[in-house]
Specification:
Blueprint lengths: L3 H11 L9 H13 L3 H10 L8 H32 L6 E4 H7 L12 E5 L5 H10 L2 E2 L5 H10 L6 E3 L5 E5 L13 H7 L1 E2 L6 E3 L2 H13 L7 H18 L3 H11 L3 H15 L5 H6 L7 H14 L12 H16 L2 H24 L2
Parallel strand pairs: 1-7, 2-5
Antiparallel strand pairs: 1-2, 3-4, 4-5, 6-7
Helix pairs in contact: 1-2, 2-4, 3-4, 9-10, 9-11, 9-12, 10-12, 14-15
Amino acid sequence: MTRPALAQLVAVLVRPAAARELSLADWDLLVRVARVASLEGRLQATIEDAGMLPDVPPAPRRHLHAARVLADRQHAMVRWEVARIHEALAPEAIPVMLLKGAAYVMAGLPSAPGRQFSDVDILVPQARIQEAEQHLFVQGWVCEGYDAYDQRYYRQWMHELPPLTHMRRKSVLDVHHTILPPTARLHPDPALLWKAAVPLDGFPGMYVPGPADMVLHSATHLFHDGELENGLRDLADLDALLRHFAADDPHFWEHLTARSFEMDLARPLYYALRYGNELLQIPVPDSAFRALAVARPASPLRGLMDGLFRRGLKPHHWSCDGRLSGAARWLLYVRSHYLRMPLHLLAPHLMRKAIKDHRKAKREKSEP
């Protein structure tokens, strides 16, 4: 089971009234864990929405307030960046789909309040991605700091351009043409994403993914791409999305599981529902697990993945770590690359990356 600080953080996220039961010492460690997990702002929003903020002692309340102010500032910056992206691409009739945090904020979803993030992710049709890059370049977004190998890695094997950084604002933009690399073992069809996309009010030519696809992309980003640094935060996103969409549509769970097979993303969804239910008590109906039964791994592999994800999804904080936490995260990192690239590409890529990281560490160590 979870250690006390993580258990208390989860308890407050699931049942905000649990905030009344915490001592000042409890809060001291809980806030530290929430900060490492990028959940401070979400924690503040959850407690405030439940009317429990006056029950939080003044010192931790100040930390939570500061995190919420930072998140709100990030949201304002995202709205500004989205407007600038629209100005750059709308005159060329290049459709844009917002992904992840930017989509949550612009669509006003319950997963947005307090959500912290550092970049904007968008999807454009593959046939127009070079054109989109050119028009974004004119508006100040440039690709910098990537050598020839990295450029080829992104442009030939990956599902996105190298990250673009705005020359003045230093905002980071990730431009995708699909949600998984073409070399990955799973093959979601971006045409299906576009067919179900929802227009974004006030921004003609801009969209957010349909409800089921938004959940599937979040699950895939976490359980296939292996982005586990903010694993608990991403599970909290899924919790908010699932509760919201299920409340709006009585057939949502049936549609979600069917869509996961149509998009070839049933396995990531299975993992998201399994560990989301286990760690955050996401209310998943038995019918959803039955529908996904054919997508779950066989017993030996399921036991291994339980051991890895139950460690890897915890915040990277000493109070949450066990003896095997580091090994679990490393194995999940290798797994994510293995799922993205065939072995004949993966082995030399990891070797090259290890050499580059070693040289970088050596240079930094030698600098005064």
